[in-house]
Amino acid sequence: MSVPITIRNITKRYGDTVVIPDLSADIHDGEFFTLLGPSGCGKTTLLRMIAGFIDIERGTIAFGDQVINDVPVYKRDYGMVFQNYAIFPSMTVEKNVMFGLENRKVPKTDAERRTLEMLAKVKMEHLAKRFPENLSGGQQQRIALARAIVINPQVLLMDEPLSNLDAKLRIEIRQAIADIQREIGITTVYVTHDQEEALSVSDRIAVMNAGEIQQIASPEAIYRRPFNQFVAGFVGHSNSFDATVLENAGGRGGLRLAGGYTLALDTLRADVAAGDEVVVSVRPENFVVADSPTGLSGTVRLRQFLGAHVQYILDDPHGREFLVNQSADFGTRLFEIGDSIDLGLDARAVNVFDGSGRTLIEGVTSNVVGNDRAAAAS
Ligand SMILES: Nc1ncnc2c1ncn2[C@@H]1O[C@H](COP(=O)(O)OP(=O)(O)OP(=O)(O)O)[C@@H](O)[C@H]1O
């Protein structure tokens, strides 16, 4: 049976260096929860604290109602999949998967049946008698996954499980992992620094930076409504423009970007006032080509045709550089290097941040325990 995981106020330091200052999160029962962040942000440290390889100095972690701080590793009820597969080279595929069941003294016929069922789930039953050295990386990772979940643990932990695979296999195995996770509905904590991987498999993503969770939300919300500029810049590309608020009343707001482009939007928080200096953040696909001057334009410095879309790097007259994606379908005009393009912005899609990088869009929260409350109080 799977369980929720409750993390409260945990801390980790190495010597004088604080790696995780004070972290809390609620991971829901049965969800695919991903820790995403740049190298060194503390995601592996957090996963290893849940696994019990690293001591919890302060705070608590609970599986369901049970605080696990003092539960030894071998008694914590989870399965784990590592980057380097970590399957036993001297055992066949079948023996590798059966190992945990034998350890738990599951009767032999029952263990054999469950092993076969699990091998079928990961599509490896035809290789049951093989040794790991005769398997591809993708096949080894399928076995590692089968071995982790055959014991019916409460929780599944995965530490960069796709990092050693080539690009095509990464897509195949991540789909297999997502399918099986959904089928058995096990609470899963998954660590990756690869945003596409996180966006494609997760129910919710926690974006981390410097030991702190910046935002917890669905993949769509993380991409479309980032809580702060770090999330906007780390997940996908964002173009930033300084802007001034012209008006904001009764749900209608207006902004002027440096350079003169004006933008009407009805998504600003009510406390944003005329005269406020803000930052407008625009995804490359949220520019629209205009047929007359708008106050926002750029000259094509680079064009890359990528099949489904064309990516342009533009230089604008104010010394800014921005990245614009346009559909590459047959009806869309392709621009040449040196062409000047007049642009508009899709007002529904832009994000707006204050001077400290926090969102000014109505209703967007970080969902980090304690964080929004603190923000609301300040
Ligand atoms: N045993 C250790 N002693 C000292 N510092 C450590 C130790 N282990 C990790 N760190 C530091 O703690 C920080 C967090 O490391 P961690 O491995 O959790 O990051 P990560 O987000 O998983 O990064 P990556 O994606 O590179 O694995 C890093 O700055 C790292 O250098």
From TrEMBL:
<dbReference type="GO" id="GO:0016887">
    <property type="term" value="F:ATP hydrolysis activity"/>
</dbReference>
<dbReference type="GO" id="GO:0140359">
    <property type="term" value="F:ABC-type transporter activity"/>
</dbReference>
<dbReference type="InterPro" id="IPR003593">
    <property type="entry name" value="AAA+_ATPase"/>
</dbReference>
<dbReference type="InterPro" id="IPR027417">
    <property type="entry name" value="P-loop_NTPase"/>
</dbReference>
<dbReference type="InterPro" id="IPR012340">
    <property type="entry name" value="NA-bd_OB-fold"/>
</dbReference>
<keyword id="KW-0813">Transport</keyword>
<dbReference type="InterPro" id="IPR003439">
    <property type="entry name" value="ABC_transporter-like_ATP-bd"/>
</dbReference>
<dbReference type="Pfam" id="PF08402">
    <property type="entry name" value="TOBE_2"/>
</dbReference>
<feature type="domain" description="ABC transporter">
    <location>
        <begin position="5"/>
        <end position="235"/>
    </location>
</feature>
<dbReference type="InterPro" id="IPR047641">
    <property type="entry name" value="ABC_transpr_MalK/UgpC-like"/>
</dbReference>
<keyword id="KW-0547">Nucleotide-binding</keyword>
<protein>
    <submittedName>
        <fullName>ABC transporter ATP-binding protein</fullName>
    </submittedName>
</protein>
<dbReference type="GO" id="GO:0005524">
    <property type="term" value="F:ATP binding"/>
</dbReference>
<dbReference type="GO" id="GO:0055052">
    <property type="term" value="C:ATP-binding cassette (ABC) transporter complex, substrate-binding subunit-containing"/>
</dbReference>
<keyword id="KW-0067">ATP-binding</keyword>
<dbReference type="InterPro" id="IPR013611">
    <property type="entry name" value="Transp-assoc_OB_typ2"/>
</dbReference>
<dbReference type="Pfam" id="PF00005">
    <property type="entry name" value="ABC_tran"/>
</dbReference>
<dbReference type="InterPro" id="IPR008995">
    <property type="entry name" value="Mo/tungstate-bd_C_term_dom"/>
</dbReference>
<dbReference type="InterPro" id="IPR017871">
    <property type="entry name" value="ABC_transporter-like_CS"/>
</dbReference>
